[in-house]
Amino acid sequence: MKYWIIIVAALNRKRWRTGLTISSLVVAFLLFGLLRSVAVVFTEDIDLSGDDRLVVASKYSIIDSMPISYLQRIKGIEGVDIVAHQDWFGGTYIDRANFFPKWPVPPKEFLDIYEEYKISPQDEEAFINTRNGMIAGKRLVEKFNWKVGDRIPIIGDIYFLKDGTNLWEFDLVGIFNDSENPANEEQVFLNYKYFDEARDMANGTVGNFIVKLDDKEEGPRIAQEIDTMFANSMDETKTYTEKAYAQMFASQIGDIGLIMNSILAAVFFTILLVTGNTMSQSIRERTSELAVFKTIGFSDITVMLLVFIESLVICLIGAFLGLGITAILMPGLSEMVSLSLGQVALDSSIIISGIGIAVITAFISGFPPALGAMRLKVVDAFRKN
Fold first, then answer.
1. What is the DSSP string of 109-149?
2. Please, are residues 100 and 88 in contact by the beta-carbon 8 Å criterion?
3. Residue 378 pLDDT
4. What b/e string do you get for 239-268 counting C-beta neighbours within 10 Å, with b at 16 or more?
5. Taking the model in full, what pTM does it have?
6. Cross-strand partners of 331
């Protein structure tokens, strides 16, 4: 108990300095928790088994299209339940700041595959039967104050109409929601048939196919069979799970894991310098106090451990507060990260890693001053003071 009193007294000696150091650590571990949680979603290993939906894309580039005729051949593979397809429409709604994904799809097959997109039967029927129909996610509808029956203008930047203009108009015929992953509600789906008939190029092609399986354990076999079927053709394919495809799509902007780990490395290197400087300055100011401890019977090892524990307490307080704030912010962050990458979560491995980093930081920053305290000679300490 007496040792804890000494440690607390040391921390309270210069409260403003201790507070600033802990605040820096809180920010560092807050960044660690947030960035690592997101990075895990982008970098964790993907297994083809255990997922009942596959995405068939072009083998060489995500911007390459494939003939829609592939659909019937894929559908003929044993174990395939439903096949749909989608395209990246691009386009701008009023202003480029109003970005949201726009996907031309076959209405019935697409909604049959994505059962998590909850939509009323009448809205689904309207989407199927309306040539230029559009359905939008609930959050997007609320954001732009849309309502069913509105005509939504989209300025095309990839696809133009056959008459040479680029102003597309779609009728909002339904609203869907996804309570499990609300981020999915920030996109719209368009009737593919109208889109394909009206566009001025690439008719009869699709961006990728979505394949619903009868048995999710058959995923690896079916994926291989699809890619083998189209091997050596003009449009070869590469089949992924949805999550693997989303990771690949995200990787087009760079190595997410490397970027985030580089940021964290820079942050913790700076924090290591700050914490080390704080501990060294604190020990220099308390040289006479440490000499008194040795005079009244504290061993060199005990004095060294006191300094180590002081460093450890500072780092652990910062880590627990930072990771605690991360846990509070995590639900909001999870909603912001879309779409098929999965839920962002502060899992136990990240917490354990954070605590481990706190201990390592405490050791590295506390070692020089602790070693100096252990080697301190009582006579020299009193002579200096």
1. HHHHH-TTSB--HHHHHHHHH-TTEEEEEHHHHHHHT--TT
2. no
3. 65
4. bbbbbbbbbebeeeeeebbeebeeebeebb
5. 0.68
6. none
